Amino acid sequence: MAMMEEGARSCLLQSRSSLEQDIRASYLMDHMISDGVLTGDEEDRIRSKPTRKEQAAALLELLLRKDNQAYISFYNALVRESYGDLASLLHNSLPLVSPEAEKSFSDGGTRYVQAVLSEGGVPQRPVVFVSRPALVNRVREKLYRLQKEPGWVTVFGMAGSGKSVLAAEAVRDHALITEEFLFLSVCIYFLSVFSLSLLILDDIWDSSVLKAFDIQCRVLLTTRDRSLADCVSGSKSEVAVESGLEEDQALEILALYVNGKPQRLPEQARSIVRECKGSPLVVSLIGALLREFPDRWAYYLHTLQQKKFKRIRKSSSYDYDALDQAMAASIQVLSEEHRELYIDLTVLEKDVKVPAKVLSVLWDLEPEEVEDVLQDFVNKSLLFRDCHHRPYLYYLHDLQLDFLAEMNRSGLEQRYSQGPPTSGDEECLYWFRFLTYHMAKANLTQELCSLMFSLDWVRTKAQIMGPAHLINDYVEYGTILDKEVRGHFQEFLSLNGHQLEQRPFPDVVQLALSQPDSSEVYRQALLQAQERATRGGLYLDWVNKSSLKSLSRLVVQPHQGSIYSACFSHDGTKIASCGSSKTLRVFKSTSGEKLLEIQAHDDEVLCCAFSPDDHLLATCSSDRKVKVWNVERGTLMRMFEDEHEEQVNHCQFTNTLRRLLLATCSNDKFMNTKLWNINKPSSQNTMFGHLEPVNHCCFSPDDAYLSTSSSDGTLKLWEVSSANEWKSIDVADMFPEQREQTEVMVKCSTWSADGRTIICAARNAVFVFDVETAAMLLEIRTSRLSTVQYCHACPSSNLVAIALSHYAVELWDIETSKKMADCSGHLSWVHGVQFSPDGSLLLSCSDDQTVRVWETKKVHTSSAVCLKRDSDVLFNNGDITVVAADNRNRLQDLIGIICLSPFSSLPPSLSLPLSLPPLSPSPLSPQVLEVPSGTSLATLQGHTRAVLHCQFTPEGHTLITSSEDTTIRVGPFSFFLILLSSLLWFVISLPVYLETHTSSPSLAPSPQVWDMSSGELLQDLVCHQGAVLACDVSPDGQLFATTSADKTAKVWSSASWECVRLLDGHQDCVRSCRFSWNGRRLATGDDNGEIRLWNVKDGTLLKICSRDNKDAMDSLHGGWVTDLHFSPDNTVLLSTGGYIKWWNVEKGEALQTFYPTGANLKRIHVSPDFSTFVTIDNIGILYILKKVE
């Protein structure tokens, strides 16, 4: 193997120390492997070294044993990975075969090379030139192969991709000219006298021209038609030219034209590059125009966006006067038939790749015919093919698509006058996704409204594509749709999108029945439900939903697992989220449509944060790593993995780009807060001061200070410029009564918009401090049963949002010290809240796997009554009476338990809510109230400990109470309401009482049965190895069943008190049971959401419900199965848990599911005819459901 030049080797040795200190070998080796100078085995040996520095040393040691090409590849890798200062150390010693070394000459190469190029007619470099070394080297490699035999090297690409410049640059090489070819000729300067001459044919379109040069010569050909060389003899090789430059390269060209630096170009420069996808032609044309008119950045960007290609005119040596002429020339070479088909591609959407079957539908041709046509387009660089998928996917460059749309504007409406093409083929999902786009483009407004305002379309597209695409359609085409009806459908999808992501797919009609009665969605759903009910379908109408106004604007389920962090982008259009799934997701804030998803870390991702320009996203994790991602490409830009030794809890960028820094904090003992310059491999500063984990860090609005919140009970403020501690606030002192007992953990902090106050959270409190004086200005105490997980100050008002462990978000006005709203809807701990940059929206994220977006103004002015789950219901000749305590009368934070006499004579006109006077009953003494006046008739004395439950006997004349004092008391009452209270959060449901006997469930494994008339203990049963959780008595009174935490259920004889059936098989606590009305079946439900149906006669298992329907919450029923009811004809079983389900008893299959807003339903009340159902969820919403007839 050839050795490295001595000058290059000496330069490497001299620079070795600097290189080992700074380079990250893993970044560089990918490029060197691509160049073929490094093998996979060599990479593995280097990666096996334990430290970064040792890896760098091993790479350099290997490099010194290789040749010139390895030196060049290493140099190019340094340039690509932004090690510019290190690359400069190697530049002067580059071997002459390197394209980078040739930059030392005015036009590339030695004087001899320049003379040969000039004689051969090779054009000079453009005035503004940026090298594309990877492509240049690829062309040179192909040319070197021609030394053995004549042949053709075809450089192909779309119009304006830079083929001619690339070909000229490839032959600007001393070794290539002196060693391989004795002469170069371009186009007409062809000489056949030299067998080793190189003929360059530039921009050839016609195969007949090519055949004239088929004389066993060596030819370099540039063309737009990849297949052009098929008509000639000899060996052939190809080099495909990408249609666009990298963004940095394109910006460099624009900067050279205007004599500036890329980083100082206006924002429109980046937009121009993105709009044309980095097309070298467009960038050069616009750059040349800007040289003459440097203030026209916005004008030329607008020109591109408006597709006014004629205004982007020639200002160089390019063959066409304007961009539109260059684009048109490519199409004119097609046959007339193919030209018409190509123009039809106007219907395609930008950045969307489609299979051939989509175009088969469009053109009404056989798939094989379509593939032949597409191959012709691909060969002529008029279409691009993604070969990484099967079947192949095809797409147009944005410039091609824009040009087609401009020239075919009038033909679109005619094309769709009979309606857009559709297909149900799985590979034709394109039409499901973009049908609305094409209809809008064709001005089919009426047809578009009919489609988008159809519940059938919503169901079909949501099931195939997911809800986010649908929501995005209503946002995108909102201006041409009826505003009111569009709002109905958009609200329905936004609030139920997380349900529509579930599999099995939910019944859309049932979901839609929960919409307001005035909604078009509800109207269509009710009509469909009524029609299906005539065919045996089961649907439930939520009849009292008009009293509830949802505050959420959007609900998204972006991850399978807890969500620990979510944040708005600085322009408010995107939301990023992360959590226990180890993934990072970015989605639209208007629709929830996924824009990006990355498997970000090896462990839980604890925080994510956008950079001020939204181009970058930082993440940190329990894996101790901090990563910075490119948002647009989803690529990893930087990883910091060596400095934090414990999990990294939080990360945040500075608020402005003046001096972009990233702050991180961790569970490290001492070096737990760091500042990073993302362009450097190590941290810039470390803050020393906290001796316990730091949970949160936050820059002040002007980026002058950084606040840190720590488990050591302090909030510290640091000067960013010096990393010195500025102030320290001992938050633990605010809890003097608790400090000695447990540590005080400061969870987080947030700055007011003016930077004068700072707000922090600890335990169940939020404190507001003056930044200058560190004096406390305000203290907000939330529920003592909850902890504050996060807080965030609104940038446009005095509001602060507080995330709480009891599933709620609260809004407080820190100016008036008043709570403005409770935002209910989450089903588990809320980990984070954040206002949008303009303060109009608020997001929250939770363990329930959802991100909710709220409209700040609507939340700000709303208030909702929250009921407690313990309630009783009376069904009386069609009238429904519900009694429950609410959150405005919490009875001194005690949980109320309510029971109605079954024969209370209530007036038919009684309406809810029934207003009762404020009550403060003792937990030991139940109160008896008259209905509907609410007059207290009696206070029942006798129990010595808290009363757990009360129950009227079926005839309504006797009341039974059970207590923690282990006694059951029986007393005569009739026609009254009884209200109790208890310090305990749980209430165990009592069974139906039969004549003079009762059995009582207990937290002990020994229920007792008493004679109610005498108070005599009839039986004390030791029946389970764990707590008895439920019991039920068979309709004939001969049997009763018990269920237990020992995962079993038992059936007992009421006559002998003996266990007659042991029912085992449940994998979790068996929490509920119910006999069928004919006594033949027993249903049991457990804490894993599984329901089992048993044959009472012999104890055999008949059916298992829910086995194959496990949902995202890792439960078969969204939670514990808490209540069960059979229909009077024993054909339907009703169950409650996280939601309500109706089952076909014979088949064990679900008939219908109702999803409440909250979860954890405790019990459900069922009317005698099984047509009305009443329950209350864990966030206090009352549901009165009636079967649709």
Automatic annotation (TrEMBL):
Molecular-function GO terms, alphabetical: ADP binding; ATP binding
Keyword field: Apoptosis, ATP-binding, Cytoplasm, Nucleotide-binding, Repeat, WD repeat
A Pfam family of this chain: APAF1_C
SMART domains registered for this protein in UniProt: CARD (SM00114), WD40 (SM00320)
Location within or outside the cell: Cytoplasm
Domain CARD as annotated: residue spans: 4-93
One cellular-component annotation, GO: apoptosome
GO BP: apoptotic signaling pathway; regulation of apoptotic process
WD repeat feature ranges: 598-639, 687-728, 823-864, 940-970, 1021-1062, 1063-1104
PANTHER family: APOPTOTIC PROTEASE-ACTIVATING FACTOR 1 (PTHR22845:SF5)
Name used for this protein in its record: Apoptotic protease-activating factor 1
Organism encoding this protein: Oncorhynchus tshawytscha (Chinook salmon)
